Amino acid sequence: MPLKDFTVPRTARRLLRAEPNLRMFSRLWQINWFFVLLVCCLAGVGYVALYSAGGGRAEAFAQPQLIRFCFGLLMMLGVALASPRVLRMLSVPIYGLSILLLVLVLKMGHVGKGAERWINLGGFQFQPSEFAKIALVLMLSTWFYRIGRDRMGNPLRLIIPALLTLLPVVLVLKEPNLGTATIVGVIGASLFFAAGMRWWQIIILVAPLPFLGPFIYNHLHDYQKARIDTFLHPEHDPLGAGYNILQSRIALGAGGRWGQGYLHGTQGQLSFLPEKQTDFIFTMIGEEWGYVGGVAVIGLLFLILLSSMLIALRCRNRFGRLVGLGIAMDFFLYCVVNLSMVMGVIPVGGVPLPLISYGGSAMLTMMFGFGLLLSSWVHRDDPD
Amino acid sequence: MFTRRALLLLAAQTGVMGTLAHHLYQMQVVHGDELKEQARRNRTSRRQIAPARGEIYDRCGVLLAGNRPNWRALIMTEETTDLQAVVDRFATIVPLDDRDRARIEHDRKHIHRYVPLTLKEFLSWDDVARLGLNAPTLPGVLIDVGTTREYPFKDLLSHIIGYVAPPNETDVQRDGIMALPGMKVGRAGVEQTQESHLRGQPGTVEMEVNAHGRVMGELERVEGQPGARLELTLDSALQTRIRERIGERVASAVVMDCRNGEVMGLVSTPSFDPTLFDGGISRTQWNSLITDQRTPLVDKAVSGLYPPGSTFKPAVALAALKAHAITPSDRFSCPGYYDMGGVRFHCWSRYGHGSINLHQALKYSCDVYFYQVARRCGMEAIHEAAAFLGLDGKLPIELPHMRAGSVPTPEMRRRHGHHWNGGDTVNAGIGQGLVQTTPLALATYVSRLATGRFVQPHLLRSVSGQGIAPVLDPLPFAKEALAAARGGMFAVVNEPQGTAPAARLSLPGVQMAGKTGSAQVRNVPRALRESGHFNSMNLPWQYRPHALFICFAPYDNPRYAVSVVVEHGNAGATEAAPLAAQIMTDTLIRDPASRTSLSRGVVARADGLDD
């Protein structure tokens, strides 16, 4: 494999040559610290941006987010040390728990902006749909690991994983959170693809999709239709539903090449940007740091994505590969949906920018996911 | 196979990320400048600021309508968590009545979240100080200063000055400026008719605002043009005296400078307090105003229509003289009644006046004489003369609810589908029946008769210091005709057996000419009148005749004209004439020219009359 040990320096690589049964301490050495560094950099960017979003105060958003990140970091390292065998054993209860939470949130969740998304877990708000993505990755990876590559050709073998994917998708759709449901669906699909689904099967599944478009639109909720209409014609209602898109576009443009300067973005600091600390944090970054800063952040995101994909590629066992790819896909979709939404490329939906946007559940689930990714790195040389 | 597919996905991911980076480049670098301009427009808000409304002064420079700072307490609803609690705490410091609370409740539901809510207006200095002291316990409450219209003379001038009120939706549609906070619209009187002068030009202020419209700082300010300063022809001191003279009577009086038409006094009683409207009027206050039988909201001096009664007789005389229907020396006999077409028209004197000429007819106010004159010269001639004298049609006074007097011709009546009896002409000869006029028109009529010129009544003396020169064309009446009418009016007051000896002035060297009038408000049944026991004083108040008096002075060099209408005052000679004489005396004494011509002692004596 040509992409062998791409991130760790040559000397360290020799030192850390993977052994099948490492003890706890030596396994800690095995963690891909370069990746951890990248994650910390991203969280650092988030801290700086949230400091500005809080109007130049750390207490507003930056401080609580930092505390969450530290907690998430510990969790990530903990998960990274878990052996794949344990993870596979836990995948079913974790999946079950995520479905239970999704059902619970439908029954008794808090309504936010027309969608039931939040559930109160002993004092802190939690979004089960975030957790469902990771749970699905774990579940499908386990399933495909068990049936192996050769049996992927049998369509009957794919019925159960398809149902396992559709169940959270439908539940999230019911919330109704179209954006996250799509992300869950695409993660599932990419795992089917990577696990070795046959091309003819893919073509049969994908071909009818374009004809489903109008049908889906008809079954959308009013607020979702309105969102699409607003996206297509934001100027129709510049102070209402189109406000976010217009103001966000204006803010990014105002940033120009070099930005208006840290803490000096007029759109953000004068509250023209809605939700500037959560979903629209990138707009604020773009306004204050300009194109240069925006591209740097995109570059950092891409670097993390690339590292994740390379970890998946480097992994020698099927389970680790699939988990790594699933997590990389999750991260990628977060970034793309959020960035396109902020730039006005796709309709607005509540998808945060990973590790930068203010918010607990997205941050913790992402860190949990990175933990799984690192676990597959630590056990990259385990045999199938 | 996994590697191939993963690399395929990675390639797709790289492509998507690259596309996004490119899109960002397009937005920030390629189209950056136009969006930057939009952001600038976003953060700055050009706001117009309401100009100060023009002030109104009387002819002596006394303030009649001004602007007073209005301290008010506002609350920023987004800065309070529990609005009701703050309002309750506020009420312990500055009392709020039920109306205030209802208004706060209404505003809370209807006003945009980021627009501050008014808790209480017209705070006293004490209130402001106490609120300042308690500020920490009142989150979101702030003190703000606006202006309110101030009328130092309150009800004395309310009919003339009018009042202002917040603009309604139609005003805002007509002129966007009206939407500015603090703008007021004149709703009556001079405030309404001179709106364009008083309003002024709004200034602009450019401010940095946040997304909620909250002002973060001021960038540029252009002061507006305040409304014009108006000077009225009124004399507020004279106005006060007239009001005192009228007392509790339901009456109106007009004092006019006959040489130029300046209205120096214009009183209508009872009246109302104009500040009620600016601050919002309560339902009970409003109901008591509109149901009052004495109609306090109506300016009787310009919109009260009354039959002129005998005060119309000089006009009939002028009409007949102009039409050459009579000469001043022609005699008509008065047996006390006049029969026409089977109907008997009575003279006020049961015993008649015998054979009399024009001078005597005016002096005695003989009805029968004028019945015959009216028949002889015809309604068209009377209408024409009345129109020249200002009794028919609208007058150019700067008041919105001016009503036109009417002296109709048979032709005009027929055009409106009415019938004309010969008796209507006869009745018109003594200013009854279809003839109607206002006190202002009566004063104009006297002024024109006294000077022989087209005197136009007006209230506006100058706008921003620019005077208004009156245009005075001569009237188309012969000098002799005018002299005959004036002579008759002189006799009414000054000759023995004149109808208004009570109106004789006690000022030496100044003589007044006048004419009494009593206008019936209801027909007297013939049987009652012929029984000889009829006395209108025994009627209930609202059925008694109106008492009228018109006069001008000095007789030899007319300077002032006065008209007085006392509603249901019964007889012009006893009720209106003495009042008019008092008003004329007051006016003459206030005249700076007469102060030098009359001796000091006389002035003192005249002042002594006031007690």
UniProtKB/TrEMBL annotation, chain A:
Protein name: Peptidoglycan glycosyltransferase MrdB
Pfam families attached to this UniProt entry: FTSW_RODA_SPOVE (PF01098)
Gene that specifies this protein: mrdB
Molecular function terms from GO: lipid-linked peptidoglycan transporter activity; peptidoglycan glycosyltransferase activity
Highest taxon above the source species: Bacteria
HAMAP family on file: PGT_RodA (MF_02079)
Catalyzed reactions per annotation: [GlcNAc-(1->4)-Mur2Ac(oyl-L-Ala-gamma-D-Glu-L-Lys-D-Ala-D-Ala)](n)-di-trans,octa-cis-undecaprenyl diphosphate + beta-D-GlcNAc-(1->4)-Mur2Ac(oyl-L-Ala-gamma-D-Glu-L-Lys-D-Ala-D-Ala)-di-trans,octa-cis-undecaprenyl diphosphate = [GlcNAc-(1->4)-Mur2Ac(oyl-L-Ala-gamma-D-Glu-L-Lys-D-Ala-D-Ala)](n+1)-di-trans,octa-cis-undecaprenyl diphosphate + di-trans,octa-cis-undecaprenyl diphosphate + H(+)
Glycosyltransferase as UniProt keyword: yes
The protein's annotated pathway: Cell wall biogenesis; peptidoglycan biosynthesis
Entry EC number(s): 2.4.99.28
Function as written in the Swiss-Prot or TrEMBL entry: Peptidoglycan polymerase that is essential for cell wall elongation.
Membrane topology, from the record: Multi-pass membrane protein
Membrane-traversing stretches: 31-53, 65-82, 94-111, 131-148, 155-172, 178-195, 202-220, 289-313, 325-349, 355-378
Keyword Ribosomal protein annotated: no
InterPro entries: Cell_cycle_FtsW-rel_CS, FtsW/RodA, RodA/MrdB
Main localization of the protein described in the UniProt heading: membrane
Family from the record: Belongs to the SEDS family. MrdB/RodA subfamily.
Subcellular location(s) of the protein: Cell inner membrane; Membrane
Keywords: Cell inner membrane, Cell membrane, Cell shape, Cell wall biogenesis/degradation, Glycosyltransferase, Membrane, Peptidoglycan synthesis, Transferase, Transmembrane, Transmembrane helix
Species of provenance: Parasaccharibacter apium
Single Gene Ontology BP annotation: peptidoglycan biosynthetic process
GO cellular component, one term: cell division site
